[in-house]
Amino acid sequence: MEPLAGLRNLTDFKSLIIRLASPEEVRAWSRGEVTKPETINYRTLKPEKDGLFDERIFGPTKDWECYCGKYKRIRYKGVVCDKCGVEVTQSRVRRERMGHITLASPTVHVWFFKGAPSKVSLLLDVAPRAMEQVIYFARYLVLSVDEKGKKKAITQLEEAFKERGTEIKGLFEERRKALISKSEAEKEKARGKIKDKEQLALTISEIELDLRKKETALLEEERTTIERTRELFENLIVLVRGLKSLSVLSEEEFEELVMYSAADFFEAKMGAEAVLSAVEKINLEEEVVSLRKELENVKGDSTRYTKLTKRLKLIDGLRRAKVNPSWMVVKVLPVLPPDLRPMVQLSGGRFATSDLNDLYRRVINRNNRLKHLIELGAPEIILRNEKRMLQESVDSLIDASQRKATRRGRGRQPLRSLSDMLRGKQGRFRQNLLGKRVDYSGRSVIIVGPDLRLNQCGLPKDMALEMFKPFVLREMISRGIAPNVKSAKNMLERRPPEIFDILDEITKDHPVLLNRAPTLHKLSIQAFYPVLIEGSAIRVHPAVCSGFNADFDGDQMAVHVPLSKKAIEEAGDLMLPQHNLLRPADGSPITTPASKEMALGVYYLTSIDPRIGASETVFADKEEALLSYQTGKIELRQKITLRVDSDLLDTSVGRILFNEVLPAGFEFVNEAVTSSRIKELFTRAFASVSREEVVTMVDAIKDLGFKGGTVSGLSFGIFDSKILPEKEKILKEANAKVAEHESNFAQGLITTEEKRRLSQEVWIEVTEELADKTWELLEDTSPIRIVIDAKVGRASRDQVKQLAAIRGLVVDPLGKIVELPIKSNFREGLSVFEYVTSSRGSRKGLTDTALKTADAGYLTRRLVDVAHDVIVRTSDCGTEDYYLVLRNPRSKKVRIY
C-alpha cells in the first residue's frame, strides 16, 4: 500500500501537525532513490532512468501505459512491467509519489541552524555564529574530553615549553659565540693592516662597540622570543584547561595542539557529522531534569535564566513530541513528486522548468562527486570542501533566503527554494489557500450612480446574469420555460427578454457584497441591493465612497453573492450602508453627502448671491415663497423675508429647499451650509431620529446637492486666480529688508542664527500679506471663493496663495526651512532653482507616505495574526466598574482599562 494513499480520502480534518521526519520515514514515503541529475532525454522527450523524472520511481507519464509500451490499457492496472519496471497506473500518481536522495555526508537542516533562535545552537548550548562556522567547516566542535589525558597534555606542554626555552637559549648562545669570534677575527685583521698605534686603538674600540651593540640586540631578541614562546604555551595551556565537551576550536588552535602532541585527549570534528555526533549523545529526559534543577538555583542573572528557559522549552518540546533531535541532521533527502516541479516544452524546442529541478540537480551532482571522491580515498581537505558545498546546495534547496549568496537562474533571478514556495504573499498559504478565487463573484471598474438610493448599487446585467446563473436556471426550470438544465443553459446563451425579468425578481431582495481593495476596515466591504443596469461598470452611491476610500478615476471593486439564507440575512442586517453610517475609528459620520459636488451644491443653494438685490415682498410661509420662485418672481439665491413661527427671517429659497429635507423637529437652518455643517447635522440626526430617517436624509441631501451643483454651473480656469499687481513692489521691499540683515551679519552685529530667524520672519510676513491681498482680489461670486468657502475636500486659501500669490518658504528633506523662499507662484511658473528647491521636500513626503503605507499594512497583519485565535467566551455583562492603572507611578496621568 502507498504511504500517502490513506490521505486521499481524508478531507474532514481539524488541524495539521508539521513535525520532523526521520530518515526511515523519508525512505517509507519514497518509491526509489534518485541517483542521476538528468531530467528527460531531449531526443525522445522521455524521462531518464534513475533521474529526477524517472517513471519507475514516480509513475507513468501516460495513463495506463508503461515506459516501454509493453503494457497498455486499464486491464493491466497494477502490473509492474518486467522489461522497464514501470507500474501500469494513472499518471496523476506523479503528483503524489516521492523519491529520495541518500546523502554521502549528512547535512544540517537550514531551518534549525539559521535564523533566530537557532535550534541546534540552543540544543547544544553553542553560540549560533560558532555553530554556523562548525557546520561550514571553518571550526572544530569538541565531542568528548579525557580528563586524565588533559592533565597529561598540560604536563607535556609545560615540558615542551622548557625544552623549547632551552633550545632557544642554546641557539642564541651559538649566535653570541659566532659574533665574538667574528669580532676577534676583525681585530686580528686590523692589527695586521694598521701600524699606527692610535688609529689601531680607535679601530679596535669601534669593533668592540659594534660587538656590544649586537650583543645587546641579540639579548633583546632572545628575551622577546622566550616571552612570545611563553605566551604561546600559556595560551595553549589555558585553552587545554578550558576544553570541555561542545567547546569550539579554530583551525589554527587545533593545528597548534596537534603540532605539540596535545590533541590526543579529545575528539573533535567538523561539519554536520560533528553536529550529528553531538546531538546523538543528548539524552532528552536527563537534560530536562538537569535544566529544571539549574533553573531553581539561578538567582539574579536574568540573561542566564532566559537562556535556560528557552533551552528547556525546546528540549521538553522535542521530548513530548517524541522527536529525535538527530533528525535535524538530514541523511536522506526527500524528492518532491515531479508534477509539483514540472518541466514543459516551449515553442521553439526550448524547455521551461521549475527552479526546484535546478536545485535538486545541483544537490545530486555534488552528492555523486563526493561519493566518488570518498571511494577514491581523496585527501581530507578536498573531502571537507565537497562536504561544505553539499551542505550549501541542500541549504539552497530547502531555504535559499537564509543564504547570503543565493544561486541565481538564467535571468539572474534568485531560484525559488521549497521554503520560498510556502513563504510570503506569493507563497502557497497566502496566495493559494487563503487567497483562493471564489465562485459567484465578479470584478469591474466603478462609476458614480447619482440616482441610486443609499442601499443600492448598479450591477451590469451581464455580470449579474453570470453570478446569479444557478438561481436563474432553477427559476427557468420551475416556471416551465426550460425542461432541463442543459436546455436552460442553451436558452440563457440567447439572452431572451424574459431571462432579465427573472433576474430582476431574483436580485430584488438578494443583496450582494462590494469590496474595494485594500480591505483596511469593515467599511471596505458593504452589502447593497443590486439595480440592473446597462454597460459594464458597477455604479456606486456617492455617499459610501468615503468608507471604501473610493474615487472614480479607474478604481475597481469586486462583487460577491452571499448564497446561504444565513449569509443573506447577515448581509441585510449588518452590512448595508444604513448600518454603517459611522466611522469605526472615532464614531464620526462617514456615509454622508458632505463632500465633493454634493456639499458644493448645498452650499451654493444656501448661500445668498450679493449681486441680486433683496426682495421687498414678505412671504407668509414656505409654500408661498416656493410658488413665487416657481413662477419666476424671485431667484433661488435671492435674499427674501419669510415668516417662520411668528418671527421674520432673512433667508432664501435655497435655504427653504434645504430645510424641507431635514427631519421633523429640526429648527430652521438659516445659514450658508458648509461641508462641516452637514456633518454636524448628521451627528445630531443620529442621536435624535431613527436610522431610516437618517438614510432618507442622506439621499435627500445628496439629490439636493447634485441639483444645486448642476444649477450653479460652477467651473474655474487658470485666469480665475488673479495675481496682485503690486506683488513686485512688495517683494522688492522684502529683498531690501533681507539685504539689511545680511549687511548686519557681515558687520558682525548679529549671529548666523539671528540672521536666519530675521530673514524667515520677513518672508513669513510677506507671504501672509500677499496671500491676504490675493484673496481679497477674488469677488464674492468667484467660483474659486465659493468652492473654498464651502469647505469641500482639500480646497483652501493656502492653495490660492500658491496658485496666485507666492509659494514662500519650503522645507528640505530633514524638515529644516530653506533660507531662500520661492517667490513665484504656480500660475507664473517656477524657475529651475525654485523647482529643484521645492521638489526636495515634496519627494521626501511622497517617499515617507509609501513607506508608512507598507509599515501600516504589515502592522495590521501582525495584529490580526495575534488576535485571530482569541475566542470571546462570555457575553458583555454591562458592568461600569473599572480599574485605575498608573502608566508611571510618578506621573499623575491615569489610564483606565
From TrEMBL:
Belongs to the RNA polymerase beta' chain family. One of its GO terms (molecular function) is DNA binding. It comes from Candidatus Woesebacteria bacterium GW2011_GWA1_39_8. GO terms for biological process: DNA-templated transcription. This is DNA-directed RNA polymerase subunit. Residues 326-606 form the RNA polymerase N-terminal domain. The keyword Transcription applies. It catalyses: RNA(n) + a ribonucleoside 5'-triphosphate = RNA(n+1) + diphosphate. It is an enzyme of class 2 (transferase). Residues 180-224 form a coiled coil.
